[in-house]
């Protein structure tokens, strides 16, 4: 009698195991898929790290990251100028060459803005909030809108002197001298975007880059990073933040 009960319960156990086996199998195949995905992502990152240009360090001045998460105080460095716009002396030549090449290609460009001090950025910030409030927006709305389009003071890379807002002049003049993403509909702005890397620049805030940069798409903001870095970043569609993160991972692994 007792044996019978044991057998019965064994049967129940195995039935239950069979059922749960099904479930766990489904669960494990799901898990395998997600593990595979993680492995693939990891592999892609590992592949990128392995392919990084030699001799580049995350701490190189050209790769200085300033954003809303990495704020910096006022910086001092030698300044130069391009078409009357102040920039870091080290990018005067590359930026001049870039703009000259655009002109030669039939797309004269305007350097709208280059180096901006933290103090000036604060002014831009305050003015933006003020102008939204003047349009009848609440203080909260004005702050939200300003955050979308204006870099927070101490968090703008214009203070590094390594960035420049460059616009295809014809489009810029025809649109009330505004910096608008839709400028990329013009051939001239597209020329600038497509050739920037040849001169050591990248479009700093690309489409779908906002998660890592904190700034929405800007078709006019170019950042000098040097030719080698620009070529790699452009080829692999990496933001500066993502690129520097890969470099840091390589440096970490080498320790
Ligand atoms: Zn800019």
From TrEMBL:
Region (Disordered): 23-46
Keywords: Carboxypeptidase, Hydrolase, Protease, Signal
D-alanyl-D-alanine carboxypeptidase-like core domain: residues covered: 86-227
UniProt feature, compositional bias: Low complexity: 28-41
Source species, domain of life: Bacteria
Name this polypeptide is given: D-alanyl-D-alanine carboxypeptidase family protein
Record InterPro entries: DD-CPase-like (IPR052179), VanY-like_core_dom (IPR003709), VanY/YodJ_core_dom (IPR058193), Zn_M74/Hedgehog-like (IPR009045)
Signal peptide: 1-26
Record-linked Pfam families: VanY (PF02557)
Gene Ontology molecular function: carboxypeptidase activity
């Amino acid at each position: 009698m007792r044996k019978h009960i044991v057998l019965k319960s064994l049967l129940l156990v195995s039935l239950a195991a069979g059922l749960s086996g099904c479930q766990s199998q489904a669960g494990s195949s799901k898990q395998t898929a997600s593990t595979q995905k993680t492995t693939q992502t990891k592999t892609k990152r590992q592949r990128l790290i392995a392919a990084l240009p030699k001799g580049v360090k995350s701490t190189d001045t050209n790769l200085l990251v300033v954003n809303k998460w990495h704020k910096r105080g006022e910086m001092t460095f030698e300044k130069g100028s391009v078409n009357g716009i102040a920039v870091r002396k080290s990018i005067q030549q590359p930026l001049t060459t870039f703009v000259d090449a655009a002109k030669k290609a039939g797309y004269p460009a305007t350097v709208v803005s280059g180096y901006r001090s933290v103090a000036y950025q604060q002014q831009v910030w305050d003015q933006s909030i003020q102008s939204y409030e003047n349009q009848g927006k609440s203080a909260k709305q004005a702050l939200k809108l300003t955050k979308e389009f204006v870099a927070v003071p101490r968090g703008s890379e214009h203070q590094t002197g390594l960035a420049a807002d460059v616009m295809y002049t014809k489009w810029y003049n025809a649109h009330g001298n505004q910096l608008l993403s839709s400028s990329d509909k013009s051939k001239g702005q597209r020329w600038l975007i497509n050739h920037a890397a040849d001169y050591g620049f990248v479009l700093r805030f690309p489409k779908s880059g906002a998660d890592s940069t904190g700034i929405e798409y800007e078709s006019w903001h170019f950042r000098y990073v040097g030719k080698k870095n620009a070529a790699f970043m452009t080829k692999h569609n990496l933001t500066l933040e993502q690129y520097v993160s890969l470099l840091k991972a390589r440096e970490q692994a080498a320790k």
